[in-house]
């Protein structure tokens, strides 16, 4: 399937989900069931992705190398994003927002987990990392299944079917959250952060070309997930690249993990470093890392964090097919 047809297919299923979301708006059972169905579909997708990867001959000898490339990809994506977003700090800052006195101050809300002041630090750490560890475990379980069974029974078309079902669920959930995209056009400065995140992440991945067989598109696809590891890894695998898909999963998982340490670090340097915190966390700023951003930069940072997460998340389904089409 060509890149254009693939993108059109995904967009079509996303729009179908948005349409169904409008039809089901206000129904309580939808709000209860959709997140559960999405979680189940995600787990099944990742398990099948693991099976597809485990079916590759000699995959066990490649796992350590895949982990190293994944970590290098995460670090490069963050560095590239932060370097480009640093240009934002060269422009005059707007008047400080007070937001009822909270503003972007973080002096009274330092991250207790990282400073060691929280007696329940281990509990917080588990709360932060349990989902990434669970998803990684599911993929490893799939790899084990693929290695032990040979994977001859597995049909990769199952991934394509389930991925499109996931796009419908994503569309329905977007409508259920009542997100208004028109606000993204209010300030060009607001859009500058996610654009730098995208360009920095994808551009820095060019340094990975020697480790992906000289294929620029595959190198850029690894970091084009922008922290959305569940969707990006499955999309890449659906292109017939299970190894690159697994590396992408690891890279974006590690990017999210590194963001939990970088956000409080940037927060210690004041509100001017908020763009750097947002760009390092990429798509996760609209959900997973949002509480940490709020606690380190104040309630006034929540709006721009959500915008950043929305724009980068929307870019992922379009970005991955585009970069994989390079040199194809």
UniProtKB/TrEMBL annotation:
InterPro entries: LysO. Keywords: Membrane, Transmembrane, Transmembrane helix. The chain crosses the membrane at residues 6-25, 37-56, 68-91, 133-153, 159-179, 191-211, 231-253, 274-293, 305-326. Pfam families: Lys_export (PF03956). Signal peptide: none annotated. The keyword Transmembrane helix applies. GO terms for cellular component: plasma membrane. One of its GO terms (molecular function) is L-lysine efflux transmembrane transporter activity. This is Lysine exporter LysO family protein.
């Amino acid at each position: 399937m060509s890149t254009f047809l693939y993108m059109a297919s995904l967009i079509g299923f996303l729009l179908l989900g948005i349409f169904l979301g409008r039809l089901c708006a206000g129904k309580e059972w939808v709000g209860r069931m959709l997140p559960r169905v999405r979680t189940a579909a995600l787990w099944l997708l990742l398990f099948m992705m693991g099976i597809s990867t485990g079916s590759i001959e000699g995959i066990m000898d490649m796992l350590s190398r895949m982990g190293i490339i994944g970590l290098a990809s995460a670090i490069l994506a963050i560095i590239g994003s932060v370097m480009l977003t640093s240009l934002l700090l060269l422009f005059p800052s707007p008047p400080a927002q007070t937001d009822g006195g909270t503003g972007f101050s973080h002096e009274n809300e330092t991250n207790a987990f990282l400073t060691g002041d929280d007696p329940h630090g281990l509990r917080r750490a588990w709360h932060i990392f349990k989902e990434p560890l669970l998803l990684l475990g599911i993929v490893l379980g799939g790899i084990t299944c693929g290695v032990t069974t040979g994977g001859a029974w597995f049909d990769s078309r199952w991934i394509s079917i389930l991925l499109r079902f996931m796009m419908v669920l994503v569309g329905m959930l977007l409508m259920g959250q009542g997100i208004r995209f028109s606000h993204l056009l209010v300030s060009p400065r607001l859009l500058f952060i996610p654009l730098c995140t995208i360009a920095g992440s994808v551009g820095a991945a060019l340094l990975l070309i020697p480790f992906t067989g000289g294929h620029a598109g595959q190198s850029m696809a690894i970091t084009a997930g922008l922290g959305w590891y569940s969707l990006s890894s499955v999309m890449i695998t659906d292109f017939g690249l299970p190894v690159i898909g697994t590396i992408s999963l690891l890279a974006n998982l590690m990017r999210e993990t590194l963001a939990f340490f970088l956000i409080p670090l940037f927060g210690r340097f004041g509100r001017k470093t908020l763009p750097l915190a947002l760009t390092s966390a990429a798509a996760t700023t609209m959900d997973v890392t949002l509480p940490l951003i709020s606690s380190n930069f104040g309630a006034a940072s929540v709006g721009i964090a959500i915008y950043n997460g929305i724009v980068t998340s929307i870019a992922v389904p379009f970005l991955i097919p585009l970069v994989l089409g390079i040199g194809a």
